[in-house]
Amino acid sequence: MQKGGEPKEARPAQEQEMPGIEQKMTPKSKTERPELLQKLEGKVALITGGDSGIGGAVARLFAQEGADVAIVYISEHQDAATVKKDVESHGRKCILLPGNIRDEQFCKKAVEDTVQQLGHLDILVNNAATQTEQKSIEDISTEQLKETFETNIFSMFWFTKYALPHLKKGSSIINTTSVTAYRGSPSLLDYSSTKGAIVTFTRSLSAQLVEKGIRVNGVAPGPIWTPLIVGSFEADKVKTFGTDVPMKRAGEPAEVAPCYLFLASDDGSYMAGQILHPNGGEIING
After folding, report:
1. Which pTM does this prediction carry?
2. CA distance readout (Å), 73 to 65, 70, 113, 165, 259
3. CB atoms within 10 A of CB 152
4. Structural domain contains residue 29
5. How many domains is the chain partitioned into structurally?
6. Tell me: the pLDDT tens digits for 32-81?
7. ω into residue 165 within 30 of 0, thus cis?
8. Does 173 map to a domain?
9. Which of 30, 60, 224, 232 has its Cα between 20 and 30 A from that of 139?
C-alpha cells in the first residue's frame, strides 16, 4: 500500500449501472494470457528429492515445459539417472547433485553449483522429506527427531537462504507440505509436525518476499504412491495405502506434478502464500 492507503495500481474512479460493460472499463479486464508453447521456457529449477516420486514427476514435467533442472538427492543414483535421461529427452539440461540436505554447507553448494552450471535460478522446489512410523512419542529417539526436522524443514531454510540472492522478480519457491499438517498423524508425530511448520514457513516467507515479486506457495499432497511409502511402512499398510480417502485410492506423482507447474509458471501469477491440496477428495481446513 502507498501512503494514504491507496493500492499501488489503483484504477481511475468510475462506475456503471449493473451488470457493467467490460468494454467501457478503464482499463479493461485482462481475460487472456499470451499463448506459450512451453510455460517454463528458459527457466532453471532446483528440485530437492527430484530423483523419484513427486520430485521426479515435477522434474519431468518442468523439462517438458522448457526448464533446465538441477536434482538434489541423497544416494538413489539409479533413479536419479533415469530422471536425468528423461529430462534430457526433452532437450533440456539436467545436473545431479547427490548429498545430505541435513548439511547446511551442502545446501549452499548445491545452489552455487546450479547457478554455475545452468546459468541462473528461477524456481526452487523444496520437496525432499523423510518419515519414520512410531506408535508412541516415547519411541521417537532424539536422533530420529533431529533427522526428521533437519531433513524436512531446516533444509528449506538453508536452500531458500542461499537461493534468494539469485532469485528475481517473477521467481517462484514451492514447498511440499502434507495433508498430515492439517489433520495430524498419530504414527507420524514428528513428520506431521514438520509439515505443519512448512505451512507456516510458506505463509511467512511469502509475506516477506511478495513485494520483491517472488511468489512462495506450497503443495499438500495426500496419499501418493512413491518410494517413501514402501520404504517407511509395513507391507500390510502398503497394501491398503490410500484406500481411506474419498477416491478410495492412492494418487500418482504425475497427478500431483501439475500443481507445481501451475505455481511455478505465469498461470499462478496471482498465487502467493497459498497451499494446493491434491489429496483424493479429503476436505481439510487449508
Report:
1. 0.91
2. 22, 10, 14, 23, 21
3. 26
4. no
5. 1
6. 777 767 999 999 999 999 999 999 999 999 999 999 999 999 999 999 99
7. no
8. yes
9. 224
Q: Which residues are catalytic?
A: 191
> Who's near 163: CB < 8 A, 6+ residues apart?
46, 111, 121, 124, 173
Q: How far is CA 207 from the centre of its chain?
A: 17
Grid cell listed for 158: 538453508
Q: Does 247 fall in a domain?
A: yes
Alpha-carbon gap, residue 264 to 45, rounded angstroms: 9
Q: Which residues pair with 72 in a beta bridge?
A: 48, 97
Q: Report yes or no on 27 lying in a domain.
A: no
Sequence letter at residue 49: G
What confidence tens digit (pLDDT) does each residue in 119-135 have? 999 999 999 999 999 99
Give every CB contact of residue 174 below 8 A, 6+ residues apart in sequence. Answer: 123, 124, 125, 126, 127, 216, 217, 218, 219, 260, 263, 264
C-alpha cell of residue 63: 523439462
**Assigned C-alpha cell, 73:** 538427492
What CATH number is given to the structural domain containing 50?
3.40.50.720
**How far is CA 210 from each of CA 19, 126, 204, rounded to the nearest angstrom?**
33, 18, 10
Residue pair 196/204 in contact (Cβ under 8 Å)? The answer is: no
